[in-house]
Design brief:
The structure is a single chain. This protein has 1101 residues and is of the alpha+beta class. The chain has 31 helices and 35 strands. Among the domains are: 275 residues, Beta-galactosidase, Chain A, domain 5; 245 residues, Alpha/alpha barrel (Glycosyltransferase), CATH 1.50.10.10. The strands form 9 sheets. Strands 7-8-9-10-18-14-13-12-16 form a 9-stranded antiparallel beta sheet. Helix 5 crosses helix 6. The longest helix has 27 residues. The protein is globular. InterPro entries: DUF4964, Glutaminase_GtaA, GtaA_central, GtaA_N.
Length: 1101
Amino acid sequence: MVVHAASSSHCRALVAVSALLLAVCVPLASAALSPYFRPPAFPIVANNPYWSIWSLSDAPGRSWTEHANGGVQAMTGYAKVDSTYYRFLGVPSVGGTGIIVDPISTQILPLSTVYTFKLGTAIQMVLTFSNPAQLDDDTLVSVPVTYVTFALSSLDGASHTVSLYIDHSAELVVADPATSVNWNDVSTSANTIIRMGANVQSVLSGSTNDRINWGNAYMAAPKETALVGTVSSDANCRNAFISGAAAPALQTGPRNGNDNWPVLSLRWNGLSVTSTTSVTKFMTLSYDNVNTMNFFSKVLPPLWSTKIGTILTVIAQMHTNYATYMSAINARNTALVTLFDKRGSNSYTTLLSLVYRQVTASTEHAIDTTTQQHYVFMKTFATSSTNGPVNGQVNAVTTMFFASPFYLLLNPSLVPKMLLPVLKYANSETSFPYTRSWAPSHLGQWPLCTTAVPTTYDMPVEHTANMLIMITAAAQRGAPLTYLQPYWPLLTTWANYLVASLPFPTSQLFVDSYGTASANNVNLAMKGAIGVGAYSLLLSLTGNTTAAAQYMNSATSFASQILAQSFSTDHYLREKGAAATTWSLKYNLLFDRVLKLGLFADAVMTTEQTFYTPKMGAYGLPVDSTTSANGRVGEQGFVAATGTTAQFTSIFDKLFLYANTTASRLPLGDYYVVGSGANVDFRAGAFVGGLYARELLEDVRAVASTSSISARAASTVSAATASSASLASFSSASIASASSASLGSASSASIASASIASSQSASIASASSASAASVASSASASIASASSASDASLATASSEAWQTFVASEASAASDASVASSASATVASASSASDASVATASSASDASVSSASLASDASDASVASSVSASVASVSSASDASVASVASDATVASDASVASSVSASVATVSSASDASDASVASTASASLATVSSASGASLASASSAAWQTSAASAASAAAAAGSDSDSTPIIIGVVVGVVCLLLIVLVIVLVLRRRRVRKPASAPAFDSTAPFFQVPSSIVANSTFDPSYDDLHTPSEPNYDTLQNVSGAETKSEAAVVSESTYDELKGAHSGAPQSETLYSELRTSHPPQDSPTQEDALKATD
């Protein structure tokens, strides 16, 4: 049994990473990983589908390392302490076995695998394999480099001489070791570098057993006297090291890889380790595959080659920045493990850490050098002979769907880069026209997308719904929509196909049918309804609320029919009309919650989860009643995410048991026998990314509180040390929370918060709590301006002068018994129609200011903490980002500590013109949202916030304060608040005059023809400029139409009336084509008949 480094307690806080520059390979002693975990395989090198090497034994010295999908890729490692040598890696038959040393502890972290060895009683060696797989850095995550770090320290307090050795065979560079290989020394003045590759380079010539046959492997380390790199036979290199002889000279090639087995080898000689001097050495293992994908006759190189340069440049950069990158890697490990541990399950934390690199290593980042388009290609790994053709599928839609929670959580912008190649193929942009009315299954066999994809693996409803769901989920989480411009007709065709296929699909393949077509599957029907709902949300993001309402009504109707026709006493059937004993996992319901559609009530999943409990096998839940012996890891991750805490914990405990005890020693297999834990199919692939579903759902809930559909994109936290913050920014609202002690604590100096990254606020945010001062004041002010595309005027409500003044006043109050925190982020707004009233200093408008607030606060001598966050976003083509930050202030001796946290939510035409209602909560956020086609600002004033601030100030006045500086601070705060209110109230009053309450939309008949995109809009695969004109949301009523896509407000999603269209037309009366546009949209493009279900299913190549 392998035991990871024990900790004195189950700590759930982040550990400081400042010491990592000296000991970057120290394992996470406080991480809440399971104390006893024997994974089925340990990731050693995990960069991409070709450069993916794993150890399949409990100790790396007990077996050869292998490729992710099988086949030996031999690596050997020795350590010599004084006169005794130990083998820690590989099982060589030549060169002597040495003393086989097993690790005393192991840890698998998201980006690192850590082995700790005791070399006799003298030396401790910590061996760490790390990948810079930080998903928020596209270039770095694409780099095919793995760090190998050796950290040596004395155990007995005595001094020792240590030498290290590592090699690898030609099996890493060719599929068949009988292939001729060649090698050479390409060292530079700074680095020792040796390389090996196939003697005949046939780039992108296809693959055998998932192994590459072209390119070169590189073994490198910073040049030093103690280091020697060479290439010779395995026996020569190893025997020389063990005997203490000099390393053999570099042999000349070429020769076959199994002819005296040439190996690349590095060795460090005579390293001195004392009781006070530890030694750390590192090296890199890299692979240059020259080109990475043949995408329908367009050969694409890897992303890093364009962004950084040659592989030698990459190696030099990785060596130069080793300390910085490793600090960022360790910080990211800590941040992720801490995030996972919030769920309170060691099994969960351990499994998510295990599969992280399994998911990232299943992808390759490529670039079209002509268009500079970045693509992400994902490979499916399959093991079953019956699924042979599935192995190597490029961007299989099903694989991407199960992996999507991982990417939607950690970097949603990568999802469109995965989906775009599929969209291009489905849109007939390749040399193979695609005529089916549903989404394709995949793009080809890795790494060749060079032929038309056959219909053999088509899953019409499955793949079509998957694509619409992923596109919409990425858009909701901040991914830009611009890439979709040529594909709206295609997406409409797909949505119409789903509508024609529902409520219950006819006989067809789907994920859980396993090669046998089946009809009326309930879980598939649910996915179809969610896919239709997803398309509705996508339309609403573009402002097309009429069509959005039609599809949403249809999705709602389908959901009701599915539930009504599949319920059986205590659960929902596997198929409509099936026996009452049939059932299946309704894992597709996950995205009803992720997208916040609300098509299926929580009670549906509660009913299902309760029914699943007695179906649990020894190692997890089976897929359904017909395949009761087999379960799938990704599907169970989806189900666990939507259950109760007890159900969530139960499922993950079973999955942990499967991973911990399975006899199938391979990278975690997705499809397995729930009774024995034996792998059935699919290994090493991205299906297991479904385990991240719970984390995604938690993040969705956290983001929802910001009241902005795309606020997720603004939630970025740097988990790196201050010296490497740019390398470790972590996109997760769950981590970004200012109240998170583990990430926001001032004591964790090495964690750099993105919210105080600017030089201005950073100096203010570091307010000290000096012994003579009981005042901790942090004033952070930044001005974000958002301007309308048609308006150049700007009204500024605050200035940096106020920020500086407040900061200086706070720092001067050294003896005040007050803790004051004023943080204001002010948005300046402009609009053509409001230009005349946008000036805050206008005398006539000043009379509208909140006098009651000023009078109530005039006598207040109080410690007031006012945190106002106003984020304005102007985007040319996508959903804007609004982020809300909150400050916590503690008053140690204050007689009164008053905290008013206000952020004002944008509300446009939310109520009748005669009604002064606004959206207000204890903390609201002002988020201005741009349309997909133009930038403008929708602003509003919150009367409730004004009242709340006034009442807080009034209450504070009654309490009083002894601080002499308090009146000054209060005066400043009140002055700024009043200034803000003047602008906000005026803007609201004037804009409300133009807002009319839209009438309720008529009920939509799901059998009626569906919306068709007008031809003028999609001509030449671009949007008509005049249509963009109409969609520029410079009028508040149109802002409202654009902001109706929230999950709980689908009933409002189609609030469009004739008067609203009249307003739109009137607002754009200056546009020369406005009348034509209006007529075109309303009358000139009557809907066409939708394809019937039968016609859609018959459509083939």
